Amino acid sequence: ASAPKKTLKVMGVDISEDTIKIFAPVVVGRKGEYYQLLYDLLGKGYEKVKVDGEIRSLREQMVLSKYKKHSIDALVDEILVSEFKRPASSAGQGALERLSEAVERALTESDGLVKVEDTNGERLISAKFMCPYDGFSFPEVEPRLFSFNSPYGACPACNGLGTKHFFGSDPCLVCNGARLRPEALNVFLKGLPLEKGAKGESLEKVNIVDTTNLSIKDAYNLFNKLKLSKQDQEISKTVVKEITARLKFMLDVGLDYLTLNRRANTLSGGEAQRIRLASQLGSGLVGALYVLDEPTIGLHQRDNERLIKTLVNLRDLGNTIIVVEHDEDTIYSGDFLVDIGPGAGVHGGEVVVADNLEKLLTAKKNDSGSLTLAYLRGEKYIAVPQRRRDAEKGTLKIRGGKAYNIKNLSADIPLGRLIAVTGVSGSGKSTFLYDIVYENLRARFDKRYRTNKVYNAASFAGTEYLTRAVMIDQGAIGRTPRSNPATYTGAFTFVRELFAETSEARARGWKANRFSFNVPQARGGGRCEACEGNGTIAVEMSFLPTVYVTCDLCNGKRFMKETLEVKYKKKNIYDVLKMTVEEGLKFFEDIPAIYDRLRTLNEVGLGYLELGQSATTLSGGEAQRVKISSELYKPHLQKTIYLLDEPTVGLHYEDVQKLIDILNRLVGAGNTVMLIEHNMDIIKNADYVLDFGPEGGEGGGTLVAKGTPEQVANNPRSHTGAYLKKVL
């Protein structure tokens, strides 16, 4: 700082020669000659500049080194300090106005910076977010700063992924897995009600990452009890109200244990379904029509109750809710029942019943022919088995199981039985079945993955009692649209051989490959080459989904005209593919190889499917049942364990009964069936139950109860047990 200047007395009044200089920093530590910039400043009326700490006149010649860093400040104004000592006088007022204008001009010239120099030295002031001590500058604080999907907010090192590599799991070294740039992490929320954070540390202030690390329950408490000043309350009122409303909705559907930053691909099916619901229903609309397709998929009975409560609240707000559902509790909660049927496929498509539910349930008799109503009224029901299998056929022993929320799990799985894996949503059922059981079985039995390594457990023993493991999931059958129930079950191979045996085909010298829509004509196939045996032609639409149009050469029949001339019992190969499974059963009743395969499809409740129906048009539940049916006619010489994930999704009571019969047949043949299930009819028919819980997320991952359904029903710690008691 320069030494204070002497004061002069003019006509007895003290006059100080100290001045305040206002600079506009136009260049801050950048290389260059800046000839044009200096020339422009002179043109704008500036007289002096400070170049690298030295005051120079713009009228003198200045040569700056091109390769050195320079700082250039334009002198905007210089005002005597003594002028401010007379605020009441016109001179004092003039000095304040001059200062205000100088600061404004400096801000405009330097894009938000002002340098002030007085007797105490100089300091830099910014109109933007900047630290006055070390010059650390902040971008404008707006929502995108806190989004790792925006280049404005994402960590520059990992582009917002939070990991070092694109598919890796090592946290990014710069943001430490937070996914945001440092500026975003330095904006804090104060006035917290929480004494302890998620990891037990004391919280005085939180940034956005700390907030999203909280569970939904903790976050709800945080925003509900924020202690803000009056002004802050005014500013944040609307936002906080919206946040708490959305969090409340997730609490209502039982997702209190999830953390806000949980990755979507790690959610269970039930959790994802409820989050989608929360996003829609949290909007609090009135007079809207909501259409929900099986919202209870993947939900435990306990979570069902919460969901139903939410839907009832929505209805009471003045909305209409149409739910496609097979869940008994949800149906009973409705006001009006529409039953479509009476059967499936060609046997369906009619409204069998449409009336007030109360009236239908209390009517003296059910003469509508509705199967659904028969089950709802208790005229038909799925029985509890007379006895449960308990023969000793070996045991899979898991020790020290560890994955996601499962910590140090010990479980024994008795083989040769129907085993149900139960528990509330998010309790660790899928983790147990996929990441521990299937992962280890696959490592023992699948040639592609064979290894002695034990996955996600300290030990996994007992595989010597088995020779094969099959995961029957809801993924599509086959990998292409060409795949269909006939090809998947192997029936189509025999159909083609049958056509090749006809006198017409033999006269023409055709083999079975002539009747395949996968073999090109060049290799002896008889398919239509215009559509390559698909029956449709894919038309690529730029920026729009691909459109499929019927092939105009074969009219969607997939085969050449000559191929279609060969007939068996007056039907050509295309007619056979258009038949439903039920029609196929009658048509091929004297051909055991085809009949047996189609019969198993019919037994799993898929009699309505067309034999040639494309795999891509089947629902998850249908695809799963096609896979089960293809297992049914295999000679059960091997001891197999079948793993299923919620096979009752989308199934009616009648279909559930069929499924139970089929699963019992598989177990009766000496196999083991293990399935994740929430459907009480399946659970009460199981021989053994493994119940996970007690809660979801961090509160889960423990084996709460095990044993027969009766033993689990008597366990006070088990949520499943409480509901099992009612149905046993």
Automatic annotation (TrEMBL):
Top-level taxon: Bacteria
Which InterPro entries would you find in this protein's record? AAA+_ATPase, ABC_transporter-like_ATP-bd, ABC_transporter-like_CS, P-loop_NTPase, UvrA, UvrA_inter
List the Pfam families hit by this protein, alphabetically.
Answer: UvrA_inter (PF17760)
ABC transporter domain ranges (all copies): 386-725
A single GO cellular-component term on record: excinuclease repair complex
Q: Which UniProt keywords apply?
A: ATP-binding, Cytoplasm, DNA damage, DNA excision, DNA repair, DNA-binding, Excision nuclease, Metal-binding, Nucleotide-binding, Repeat, SOS response, Zinc, Zinc-finger
Looking up Gene3D superfamilies in the UniProt record yields: 3.30.190.20, ABC transporter ATPase domain-like (1.10.8.280), ABC transporter ATPase like domain (1.20.1580.10), P-loop containing nucleotide triphosphate hydrolases (3.40.50.300)
Subcellular location(s) of the protein: Cytoplasm
Keyword flag Flavoprotein: no
Keyword Zinc-finger (UniProt): yes
A Gene Ontology biological process in which this protein takes part is:
SOS response
The UniProt entry, under PROSITE patterns, shows: ABC_TRANSPORTER_1, ABC_TRANSPORTER_2
Q: Molecular function terms in GO for this entry?
A: ATP binding; ATP hydrolysis activity; DNA binding; nuclease activity; zinc ion binding
Q: Which family does it belong to?
A: Belongs to the ABC transporter superfamily. UvrA family.
What NCBIfam families has UniProt attached to this entry? uvra (TIGR00630)
Question: Cross-referenced PANTHER family, in alphabetical order?
Answer: UVRABC SYSTEM PROTEIN A
Q: Which protein are we looking at?
A: UvrABC system protein A
Q: Which organism is it from?
A: Candidatus Adlerbacteria bacterium RIFCSPHIGHO2_02_FULL_52_17
Q: What is the lineage of its organism?
A: Bacteria, Candidatus Adleribacteriota
